[in-house]
Amino acid sequence: MGTVLSQSIKNTLTNYLGIVVGAINVLFLFTNFLSDDYFGLITFIFSTANIMMPLMAFGTHNTIIKYYSRYKTRQSQSSFLTLMLFLPLAIILPLGLIGYLSFNTIISWLSIKNTIIKDYAWLIYISAVAFAYFEVFYAWSKVQMQSVFGNFMKELFHRIFTTILLICLYLGFLTPHELIYSIVGVYLVRVLIMKLYAFSLRRPVIRFSKFSGFWDVLKYTSLIIIAGSIASIILEIDKFMLGFYVPIEEVAYYGVAIYMASVIGVPARAMQQITSPLTAELLNDKNMVELKTLYKRSSLTLFIIGGFIFLLIILNINELYVLLPEKYGTGLFIVILIGVSELLNNLLGNNNDILFNSNYYRMVLFLGVLLVIMTAVLNMIFIPLYGGNGAALATFIVIFLYNISKLLFVSYAFKMIPFTINTLKTLLLILSSVVLFYFWDFPFYPLINIALKTLLLVVLYSYIIYKYQFSEDISAVIDRILNLFFKIR
């Protein structure tokens, strides 16, 4: 876990800097500098682009992770990477042509409920292409065991420039129309920088020649499109479908609540950048002992960290909503449901990496397709009845069932589960903290209340985790922090 923990810590720090900048953007700048309909429009555009991204990438970002370590010679690696570099064009170009020929039909369908979407629909395609090739170049970097710069570009780069653009909007240098185009421009610059970095780690040598396992790779990448799409659809389809049932500004209100809850999933995304290639390598080498160890330790580490962030959000949510415009204050139920969903994702550790990089990925596809259908059906039932709360309920049900299915399947196929006695201890600590702190508020300004409650939680939670040695990895990090603190003193 040394390499995993080192890069995970760096990635987590980067992610949380991104979260801080993103929180400033989403909770304060967007909500105060931009009208609700334009904010909802931006949420809709990029959520839809994220749904399309796995299809545009042709699954190559997952395929690079799974197969790269199998090829040991420079020639076979070059042939493999050449295929991965050009394969997305087999989807991107035909879809672009179809979109061009049927543009009027598509935009009429997308803008049935909200006509504001009509003039910006084509930006969804451009953004999806940029997202897809970013992931390809990021995977290219990850298999070189270098995930930190890519994580910076993924989590922080575009948020910093969005902050700058929103300030320009406030100062009158940009119109809302120009802001949307400028944000898309930032994503295009981001993918170019990521490409240059990836190629600096491993310079591409274009070799259009067949390599060992060619058809296995092609079959996998064709099927994994569905797996990648499933994850994106489950996470993003709620915002997409809200655009068909409710006014576009309500998508903005829902997006703010989702953003707050999504912070809980940051450690999992950070760790996944390095556990994914490591898991693939362990599976390729058939090293089940190390794989089991990685499974348990990643689960416990993510559950402890994710549980702490869950507590920070849930225990401070009422004070945080006091700081936002009143119309955004209806998302408490959404934050709790999606927060629990994110915590469940953390609890599974590198479960996704095991399934997607093993020969059992077809089962994930089968389960995923069923759950995507369920997602769409539940959203169609619940959104008209309950609006944003209905979308959150549908997402929670589907993610819960999806995670239970993956957990049971890994247990059956690999004869291992990620839980230990310390998992139960962590769960009890989280529940006890909710009971102890949720109804306890200080009579001060909301920001001061948040700071005081956070400080108390940090001290209590960290002390118990460290004192009773819940996790070797977490204790090692705390030891480093304490040693550094005492050295400075």
What this model shows, in words?
With 489 residues, the chain is an all-alpha fold. It has helices at residues 2-33, 36-57, 60-67, 74-86, 89-101, 103-110, 122-142, 148-170, 176-201, 214-245, 248-262, 266-284, 288-323, 332-347, 351-356, 361-386, 388-414, 421-437, 446-467, 472-488. It has one domain. The chain starts with a helix and ends with a helix. The mean pLDDT is 82.
Helix content: over 70%
Shape: globular
The average pLDDT is 82
Work out the helix count: 20
Terminal Cα span: 30 Å
Unreliable segments of 5+ consecutive residues? none
Give the topology string: H per helix, E per strand: HHHHHHHHHHHHHHHHHHHH
Summarize the biggest pleated sheet: none
In total, the number of strands is 0
Oligomer state equals single chain
> What percentage of the residues does DSSP assign to strands (E)?
under 5%
The radius of gyration over CA amounts to: 22 Å
Structural class: mainly alpha
The domain tally reads 1
